[in-house]
Design brief:
BirA Bifunctional Protein, domain 2, 4 helices, alpha+beta, globular, 7 strands
Length: 211
């Protein structure tokens, strides 16, 4: 897959202290703020294209790609997700100033409009994790509390002990990435490996919801 720019250029856009348009306009000239917007759109379009090409290979339905701005600020990361049905758990793909990650997560945003609670999610993860872990190279995976900053160091999966606190788990690649890193190949592999666990978690949550 051809990516328009070097993937190691992506995290550079987030190397800033200020993300609020209001504050940026106080600190910078109008032309400087517009230049930041242009740079953001350029990298976000590259990110979007890479994810759409990966999604086409996976054939998991429509991909949710978060915009580069929420209207009042620019993002401190770019995020997209794969979701099966109308459930709160999903498989996220995220890039920030230091890493690229593909991970299973419970999405709290608008969770009241979708199926499942965070308690049901974590219970299902704890039940299904051990069997799934035997099917992958667990040394390639990390796990971290959902409440933890994405920039904090993540614990390796093979060192994880079950917890009642909702967790995220997946693969993490730290920048700079090797020149031969293939986004489509690595992301699709990680999503494919997480899918069996994702489906089992959803199944357990659906059973719990019916009880």
């Amino acid at each position: 897959m051809r990516i328009a720019m070097n993937i190691n250029e992506w995290p550079k856009i987030f190397q800033r202290e200020t993300f609020s348009f209001k504050v940026l306009k106080q600190q910078l000239s109008e032309s400087e703020v517009e230049a930041i917007k242009v740079d953001y759109k350029l990298i976000w379009n590259d990110w979007k294209s890479a994810n759409l090409q990966t999604a086409a290979k996976l054939d998991l339905g429509k991909l949710k790609i978060e915009s580069w701005t929420n209207g009042w600020k620019i993002r401190d990361h770019f995020w997209t997700c794969y979701r099966i049905g109308d459930v709160n758990p999903c498989i996220g793909v995220l890039v920030n100033r230091q890493q690229l990650q593909v991970y299973l997560m419970f999405q709290n945003y608008k969770s009241e409009t979708r199926l499942g609670t965070s308690t049901q999610y974590q219970s299902a993860v704890n039940q299904k994790l051990a069997n799934w872990q035997r099917t992958v190279n667990s040394t390639e995976y990390y796990v971290w509390p959902a409440s933890q900053s994405e920039l904090e160091p993540h614990q390796r999966l093979d060192q994880y002990q079950a917890s009642d606190e909702p967790v995220m788990l997946g693969k993490v690649w730290y920048f700079p990435l090797a020149e031969e890193f293939n986004f489509e190949q690595e992301v699709s592999k990680a999503v494919s490996e997480l899918l069996p666990l994702y489906r089992e978690v959803i199944g357990s949550m659906e059973v719990a919801a019916d009880e």
